[in-house]
Amino acid sequence: MEKEIKLTELQVDALREIGTIGAGNAATALSQLVDKKILISVPRLDIVPIRKVPEVIGGLETLVAAIYIQILGDVAGSMLYILSKEGASLMVSLLRGRAGTSRVLTETDREMLKQAGAILIASYLNALTRFTGLAMLPSPAAFAFDMAGAIVDSIVIKLGLKAEKAVLIETDFIETSGRARGQLFFIPDPKSLGVILGKIGVK
Amino acid sequence: MTSKVIGVKFADLRVSVSPHILVSRALGSCVAIMLYDPQTKVGGLAHIMLPSSSGVRNCDNPGKFADTALQAMLDEMRKRGAKKTNCGKDCRGSSHVFNIW
Lengths: 203, 101
Description:
The complex is a heterodimer. Chain A has helices at about 10-35, 55, 85-95, 105-130, 150-160, 190-200; strands spanning about 40, 45-50, 65-75, 75-85, 135-140, 140-145, 165-175, 180-190. By secondary structure, chain A is an alpha+beta fold. Chain A is about 45% helix and about 30% strand. In chain A, helix 1 (about 10-35) packs across helix 4 (about 105-130) and helix 3 crosses helix 4. In chain A, strands 1, 2, 3, 4, 5, 6, 7 and 8 form an eight-stranded antiparallel β-sheet that branches. By secondary structure, chain B is of the alpha+beta class. In chain B, strand 4 and strand 5 form a beta hairpin. The longest helix of chain B has 14 residues, at about 65-80. At the A-B interface, strand 6 and helix 5 of A face loops of B.
C-alpha cells in the first residue's frame, strides 16, 4: 500500500537547500529574538513514513515539546517542530534570558515555546514558498509537551490518515550555553508532495 | 511458557493468550480497546484511531477504526476459543494532546 517515493538527486539537493535556507532563516530569527549569536549545523534531510516518526524522534515514550502548524494555500499539509526535553529547556532559558532552574515547563514557558516554534516553522515555510513559488500560509500554532507516540497519534488522526510520508529536516542550534536539536517534519498531503517535488524538479 | 510482551502500534490489533502481555504505548488521542475472556485466557487489544469506517472507500486496515477493529478482534479471538459473552471489556485513551482542537 505504501508507495516508495524515489527522489532524484536534484530533488534531494533542492530539499536540502530549502532546509538549509529555512534553518538559516530560523537561526537568524531566533538570534534576533534572544539577541545572541546562534549557529546552525548543516541540516540532515530524510523522508520517513509517518509511522516511523516516533522512532526518529527517539522512541514512543520519549517526552518532547511539539509545535504544530497546518499549512493552507496552494499546498495543503502540516509542519511539526520537535524539540527534545533538553532542547526545550535550553530554548526556554534562551528566551527568558537566564538559565532555567525549574524542571517543569510553566504555562508561560509553554506559550513562549509555542510562539518561538511558530516563528521557526514560518522561517522554513518561507524558504519553501520562495523556492517553489507556491503560496503557503500557516495556521495558528498548537503546542504539546507529551510522549512522541502520543503526539504523532494525534496528528495522524487530525490528518485523517491521508498523508503517509514526512520530510524531515534536522538541525542543531548551537549557542554558547549548549545546543538544541530541532527536528522539523513537513507532512504534505500526498497530492501536495507531488506538486512540490514537481516544482523542485523543474528548477 | 515464558511471558512475552507484544507491542500494539497505532492502527494495529493483536490477539494473544495468557501469560503473554499486550501493550499499547503512548496512546495520545487514540483509543485502546481491550477484550479478555477469563475462561480461555484469550485477550485482544486494538489501538484504534477513528470511530467508524463508514464512508471510507478502501479500508485496507481494520485496526484503524473502532467498528472494523472490534469485529476483526472478536473473529480472531473466537478462532482461539474465546466467547463474546465471557469477555470483559475496557477502553482507554482519547486524550487532549495539543492545546487547541
